Amino acid sequence: MSPMETAGVEPADFLAERDFGGRDREALLSELSRVLPRGALLVSPEDARPYECDGLTAYRQLPLAVALPDSEDQVRAILRICASLDVPVVARGAGTSLSGGAMPHKDGVVLSLARLRSILALDPLARTARVQPGVRNLAISEAAAAHGLYYAPDPSSQIACTIGGNVAENSGGVHCLKYGLTVHNVLRVRAITIEGEALEIGSEAPDAPGYDLAALINGSEGMLAVITEITVRLTPKPLTAKVVLAAFDDVVHAGDAVAAVIAAGIIPAGMEMMDQPATRAVEPFVHAGYPLDAKALLLAESDGTPEEVEEEIGRIREVMAANGATGIRVSRDEAERLRFWSGRKAAFPAVGRISPDYYCMDGTIPRKRLAEMLTAIATLEGKYGLRCCNVFHAGDGNLHPLILYDANAAGELERAEEFGGEILELSVEYGGTITGEHGVGIEKIGQMCSQFSRQELAMFHRVKAAFDPRGLLNPGKAIPTLNRCVEFGRLHVHKGGVPHPELPRF
Amino acid sequence: MIERFRETIRAAASQKRALRIRGGGTKDFYGGPLRGEILDTRDHAGVVSYEPTELVVTARCGTRLDELERMLAERGQRLAFEPPHFGETATLGGCVAAGLSGPRRMAAGALRDFVLGAKIIDGRGDSLSFGGQVMKNVAGYDVARLMAGSLGTLGVIVEVSLKVLPMPASEATLRFEMTQEDAIGTMNRWAGRPLPISATCWHAGQLMVRLSGAAAGVAAAQRDLGGETVEEGARFWCELREQRHRFFEGPAPLWRLALPPATAPVPLAGEPLIEWGGGERWLRSEAPAEVLREAARAAGGHACLFRAPFETAEPFQPLAQALARIHRSLKAAFDPNGVFNRGRMYPEW
Q1: CA distance B331 to B132
Q2: Which 3 state secondary structure label does DSSP give B79?
Q3: Cα separation, A90 vs A66, whole angstroms
Q4: Domain boundaries in chain B?
Q5: Closest chain A residue by Cα to residue B321
Q6: Contacts with B187 from chain A: Cβ below 8 Å
Q7: pTM for the full model?
Q8: At residue B4, what are phi and psi to the nearest 5 degrees?
Q9: What's the CATH number for B2-166+325-334?
Q10: B259 reaches A (C-beta below 8 A)
Q11: A465 touches chain B (CB under 8 A)
């Protein structure tokens, strides 16, 4: 069917992004300063500079102003003011997003939730924590530790990233396969609409009446409402954990071993893969004891009671050996377990040491396509003249190729972006997705046009309009307009299909 | 088949006629009144892909739930949310649309937690695909998950991808004599410890606890918790899931209260049965709907008239004003002419 056939009525703002220029900046600032405490409104370029980008530092934009409310009432007042003056609002947590989701709008206000950082209640019996959005991910687990509980999702930025940002991005981590993503661990979200109305989404009961709006708010990238309170589910800390470190002389064997572990009925607490370039980058940095001659390393963790862990580790060892592991080590104590993990967890900073800049991708593919993807990436390294290290959440198919480049070398950033773009489109072609856990933001908005049809994109715009009919929350992110897709030249490429299927693609 | 669905929907939309999406009809009792001409999904059946090592199964809406589960079992896997069938003709589409989970819900997650992707036809007759076959996917809003429990009011779910999990190597069921109050405390305290508890049920002074997992872990927990080992545990949990347990017999209206699990016993007229570690409380009660709804709301939950011999109240707890407005907008976004399952969730739409 041609995309035009049922185009019908298009949702507002679907064709082109709105121009928010020419708003009354003086009126905006004077109204905002009336509702905010002293020092909570940043307007000069010097003060706003730290907010001009998030973890995706290649994209920068100064906002009209940065507001730093410290209460829900202030958040509501800011939203009402922005709604009345038709000014865009970009919500922001710790700014650790890797996709530019928190990059400011040039005619908008950055609404930082960093000062809403109280743990409001922690109920060890019900195993819940009610927190404000600016609370750091790790701080929740630290507060729960005394009760033998923790908050399971552990994005690698967990020391800094906030829970509000985690909900906005539906963040993952290395333990998702067993413990789920943010959406599986958040029970309730309280959020304020652009009109200043409070929404109670989900509940501390197992479910809530009506549609599953929690499915929408998790991963909504600040486009639907501004989160002011979150109840998370806490998980009992496993009594013990051990990790198997297995070396392979071929990435294909390592991929097969991952599938074989799953086929054996084992769901490891974490299962991670690193290729040789990644191993060689991290080993001198952290001295994890990784074998440098291995083409691929697998880390597989088992947690639970001592009896369960013994049984499972034994089975994981057997499966690794049967699938051609050239070396297998099991952590002997907690210090060694942490050391085995340290290399994987330090992969990004370690790569940052060997290259002036790197570009982190986030595609997810069916695991069985892994070897194909790694081969394609190797070919792309030649094509673009750039190196790439691969770390991989092998258990759930989420791949993080790190493309090394030098922003000061002419043309390298552009080449890195094209390289990354090809990886994302291959992810879609292989039956996967352009983003597993980092979000679309501004970075991957073009590739959204490859993954979704016109009708699907129109539906996303309608979903947004159901919450934010005026399109003021984080405009220009996550969901592309039709014009953007036309510019990107990708509109009519349909899911799984490529423009010229007869041509070989690498 | 898809084309036939689309034509039917377009014709209904142009005349603003109601359609009632129906698979095996095993959940006709659930939700509001049944209105409109039947759009039968049973012929759009079959597994599209199943790869045990990817932990994903994709199947068409009319696929029989029992056949799907049998196929998974042959490869040592299962739907971990343990969905109730309520009849052998239950289909996958109806299962997802109803969004109901079984005894394993608190340990494994709810149905919605396992939805990875869905192909739907909206009220314009457009075929749309959201999510996919991979575990992690944050491209666009999670519309596939929104379909779980939407009672067919947003579109026809034509195909679904679900995460599947291995069967536990070992299971055991324990029985304890206990008051309701003690049972609620005990279930919550145990849930806070790293124990392999996969289901709980308290009724008439008895607490049943199911353990699932590695053989060594189940045996260790059995020694730790004590209680009396129940021989026919598997049958008990199956009958509970299918509401064939004797508690569910008789004509009194069946209410389902979903509450924060640690909520103390709620003094309400009627006989209770408690599942999900205290989070799901069934009540056979003639008490007025307002009384039950207010009690549930005050405890931080909601009350649903799950099954009743005749219509005595709206099935679902009314929504707060701001949420109700968003629901109406979402309904209009997916189904602008109000074709699908009119009044099945809320009477206004």
Answers
A1: 23
A2: coil
A3: 9
A4: 2-166+325-334, 170-307
A5: A199
A6: none
A7: 0.95
A8: -65, -40
A9: 3.30.465.10
A10: yes
A11: yes
